[in-house]
Design goal:
This protein is mostly beta strands. The protein contains 1 helix and 17 strands. This is Glycolipid-binding domain-containing protein.
Length: 194
């Protein structure tokens, strides 16, 4: 297990998206220096529109975001975003400072269930503990970035249960994660297939 009590993640994982959208996400995880490189993509149909997103996210040993490259395609065109973070809460989007993201440590891709693993790992919550985890939230398909207030609470009892809330979207749900901290079930959004 790593320093947070997690087993190393698998080299690949996949989720079937259903509910808010219909689609599929595949990711590949490998070590990168002392941290991890997460590469993957999601294809989906949402509100009658198709889109696909490819991502590369690099995190340090604590799973704090340091770099990401995201590409999105939809009927409106092709979009690219380069993200740099210093690991202490300062962000740059396509080379420009992003003061609205000050204090965020996690990147949350609207298209990805995998990115919920970042705060789960980074926070290392004990059972019954909760924490605010504001994130740099990347919208799909145009790749607009905004600050998203989020809260995680590790539920006591059965392992791998977290209460998750994102008030801006009126989301309050229970995430289930595996022994490596990857989401197994996100109600009304996705379920892990591999």
């Amino acid at each position: 297990m790593d320093g947070g009590g997690w087993l190393p993640p698998p080299t690949t994982a996949a989720w079937r998206h259903a509910g808010a959208r219909v689609g599929f996400e595949v990711a590949y995880l490998r070590t990168h220096g002392t941290g991890w490189r997460l590469e993957g993509g999601t294809t989906a149909v949402e509100a009658g529109e198709t889109w696909m997103v490819e991502y590369l996210v690099e995190v340090d040993a604590s799973w704090t975001t340091h770099h990401a490259r995201i590409t999105s395609r939809c009927t409106s065109g092709l979009f690219h975003l380069e993200v740099e973070a210093d690991g202490t809460g300062s962000w740059r989007l396509d080379g420009r400072t992003a003061p609205q993201l000050q204090g965020c440590l996690d990147l949350d891709l609207e298209s990805s269930v995998l990115t919920n693993a970042l705060p789960v790992h980074r926070l290392g919550l004990a059972p019954g503990a909760r924490a605010e985890a504001p994130a740099a939230y990347v919208r799909v398909p145009l790749l607009a970035v905004e600050r998203l207030a989020q809260r995680y609470e590790r539920l006591a009892g059965e392992e791998g249960r977290y209460a998750y809330a994102a008030p801006a979207f009126e989301v309050a749900t229970e995430l289930r994660v595996d022994a490596s901290g990857l989401v197994v079930s996100y109600p009304d959004l996705a379920v892990r297939e591999l």
